[in-house]
Amino acid sequence: MRIRALQTAMLSAGLLLPAQRGCRMPPASSVHAITLRTEYLVDPLAVDVRIPRLSWIIDGGTTRGVTQSAYQIEAASTPANLAADNPDLWDSGKTTSNQQNQIEYQGPQLTSRQQIFWKVRVWDQTGAPSEWSKPASWSMGLLNEPDWSARWIGDPLPSVDNVAATTLRHRFTLTSKPSRAIVYASALGAYDLHINGQRVGDHVLAPEFTDYHKRTQYQAYDVTPMLQAGDNVIGALLGDGWYAGGIGLAQALIGKPRNIYGDHPRFLAQLEIASATRTGTMERIVTDSTWRVTRDGPIRSSDILNGESYDARNEMPGWDKPGFDDSHWSVADVASNVGTLLVAQPNEPIRITRDVRPISVTEPTPGVYVFDLGQNMVGWVRISVRGATGTTITLSHAEMLRDNGTVYTDNLRGAQQTDRYTLRGSSAGPWTQRDNMIGIPTDCPQRDERLGWMGDIQVFSGTSIFNADMGAFLTKWMRDVRDAQTPDGRFADFSPQPFQQRLVEMKRGDFMGVPGWGDAGIVVPWRLWQQYGDSRQLRESYDASKRWIEFIRANNPDLLWKNNRGNDYGDWLNADTMNDSTMPRKGGEVPKPVFATMMFAYATDLVSRMAAVLGNDAEARQYRALFNDIKTAFNRAYVTEDGRILGNTQAGYALALHFDLLPEVKRAAAVAYMLEGIEAYHGHMSTGFHSTYRMMLELSRAGRSDIAYTLINNTTFPSWGYSIENGATTIWERWDGYVKGRGFQDPGMNSFNHYAIGAVAEWMYRVILGINNDDDHPGYEHFVLHPVPGGGLTWANGSYNSIRGKIEISWRTDGLTFTENVTIPANTSATVYVPAKGVERVIFAVQSGTYSFVAH
Ligand code: BGC
């Protein structure tokens, strides 16, 4: 290493830490606790976790080396008590700890509806306290069944012959404006809640997709400002949603397209109003037989897969306001028992996040207009139209254009994905249309599928967390995963699994228990722990994880996963499935038993790690021993003396390296064979869903980022670049979804909006930006910044919003000098690598703050 380079880098980096520089103590006020969250959410209104967990981020200002040496939380029953430093619920006292998330509330047991106001202050590394944070709050949900007096109501007739949406309405009178009003609402179906002419909240498609036979989420909204003294109206629009409408694959799997969980959509609401004048009294407005319902409104049908038909001639102006005449509506039908568990929604809602305007309009055939939004996307269309009464406008949604400029819908399979708007004639009607949204990690949003396919998120979960705050979302979905696990321990291929019961009745055991898919039940909790330090998630998933391992073991005593692999998709959509004569046609796919055994080993490895985190050392050792035994069996059966893995595929070597399945002496050979495999594919990948991003990571781990950069820079297929050159604005499901001259792949399975091979973004975060978590310090208490330039890039910049704050990195190089700017959040530390010419890299241990490193 050239000393001068190191010195220059250290000087430019201002690397000398505060103590070495002559310790300047930051003024107390320069450090603040911000972004206070409860169970990953900001000020949630209904939490049903009995011991909620708190977190905050530390804003260290411009001071470097900020750490939290202690914290104090105060929790009070009123804002006034909190402001007066009277923490009547809980005072943690000054607690010596650097922990700033996953902190369990330790006050008295919480009860339904209870409001908790809290604040936190932190002591920095000099021992100086910050000011108290701004107050935050959470409210408990309805924790016990008797808390609910609302009944499930709906139209008297099920959604079978008539599939129009149900409109529900109830008028009530208040003597005064309330001091606080919270409404708890849910549906077997999908609902929009209205009060006094306004839509309540910003949720869409609430209560979202769960296994309604097991659990249904409810939402809570603060509607205090919407209520008034005198007459008030509460109402809702109720559609079929996932409960009674179409669900992907239903027709194919169980021979009916809709009404999977039930055929009778229902709505539930409980409005609780605290009187402003009589303290301590609560009035309740609940769904019951006094409500009125109709199916005569404008929404003639609404379906997640097929779209919506809206007839503006049936609009009912003022239906959600006082003064509307509903005397001709029916009396609501009350269900006696719907058999579901009501749970508070733990995840961020599905909501509208932005408006997108078309970038071009064309008319490829007379009367047919194509609006190009410039981006493959999901959402709703807002239109303003004028025209004669009864005119119907048909809106089809598609991902690609045919060569003649018309929209390509063949790949939607059974999903009509079409909205119809019939004009009332008198005036323009702007109307937001429902398209499709998720609440679960779906495989794709367009064709008749849209299911929580486990293999896809198993590979994409890492990327998804780098891209967005997924803590609450995946916490919710992991419940769906555990709900769908079969008694014998198999995780489902997708969760929720709406057809499980029916498939079992039909004596079909498929769509459960597939290598690489079921493993999401273990991989996703592990990712939550790595990225958020969420050990509670590990605890909640641990038994389910063990049951999955034990299912595989029981069916495969020789530890090679040859039996009971369900539908066995393998390393899905590898190069062998491509339809192109210029590429080698066979030899891309890792043999399925080899793939399955590697997944078995990997999942076992993670279970052993989980046990260790949870302090269960005996089981950690037991599963470690099982992992070693699987590894031995794998090597004996599938790996030759000279390190060739059965099938001799790129994928096989990538996965074996990634899951640490080879003896140390064979790793170098595996890397060489992997490179040979890439060469044989003319410098391209032959990998599938599971191995693509893992091969990228392994190339970099082996010091061959140059090859990884070649793969990501490729523009001939299979490559990401090829799809981008052909108009992709979202990741394609297949490498050859569309090929110039040849046209589209098989429309039976050809999505242009499928995240699985987009998992390469994890490589981009980890290698181009170089942001890497550290398993010895989960949740970014400590992390590694290790950018590896290459591929002709002269600069990169990006960030990750970690649970401890925003990590930023940007670098620039002209080939001689490398400049790297980093921001390390307060109360974290990082090991920073700086590539330097002539030396491999320079490594720094860095405390919080912003730094600039220059290496020559
Ligand atoms: C889905 C996938 C899924 C797969 C199982 C497909 O139809 O779209 O992404 O993982 O089935 O092989």
Low-confidence sequence ranges = 1-26, 431-437
Mean pLDDT: 91
Quaternary assembly? single chain
The helicity comes to: 10-25%
**How far is the first residue's CA from the last residue's CA?**
12 Å
Overall shape: globular
Structural class designation? alpha+beta
Main sheet overview: 6 strands, antiparallel
Protein traits:
single chain, 856 residues, alpha+beta, six-stranded antiparallel β-sheet, five-stranded antiparallel β-sheet, 18 helices, disordered N terminus, binds beta-D-glucopyranose
In summary, what is this structure?
With 856 residues, this protein is an alpha+beta fold.
Structure write-up:
The protein has 18 helices and 41 strands. A six-stranded antiparallel β-sheet has the order 13-12-15-10-18-21. Strand 34 (771-773) and strand 35 form a beta hairpin.
Q: Would you spell out the secondary-structure blueprint of this structure?
A:
Layout: H1 3-13, H2 18-21, E1 32-38, E2 53-59, E3 70-76, H3 79-83, E4 90-91, E5 95-96, E6 103-104, E7 115-123, E8 136-139, E9 153-154, E10 166-174, E11 180-188, E12 190-195, E13 198-199, E14 215-222, E15 230-239, H4 241-244, H5 250-254, E16 266-274, E17 282-286, E18 292-294, E19 299-303, E20 307-311, E21 330-331, E22 333-334, E23 341-344, E24 360-365, E25 368-372, E26 382-383, E27 392-396, E28 400-401, E29 407-408, E30 418-422, E31 431-432, H6 454-467, H7 471-483, H8 500-505, H9 520-532, H10 535-555, H11 592-613, H12 617-638, H13 650-658, H14 664-680, H15 689-701, H16 705-713, H17 720-725, E32 738-739, E33 743-744, H18 760-769, E34 771-773, E35 782-785, E36 795-802, E37 805-813, E38 818-824, E39 829-836, E40 839-846, E41 849-855
Parallel strand pairs: 14-23, 20-30, 35-39
Antiparallel strand pairs: 1-2, 2-6, 3-4, 3-5, 3-7, 7-8, 9-22, 10-15, 10-18, 11-14, 11-16, 12-13, 12-15, 16-17, 18-21, 19-20, 24-25, 26-31, 27-30, 28-29, 32-33, 34-35, 36-37, 37-38, 38-41, 39-40
Helix pairs in contact: 6-9, 6-18, 7-9, 9-10, 10-11, 11-12, 13-14, 13-15, 15-16, 15-18
Bound molecules: beta-D-glucopyranose (BGC).
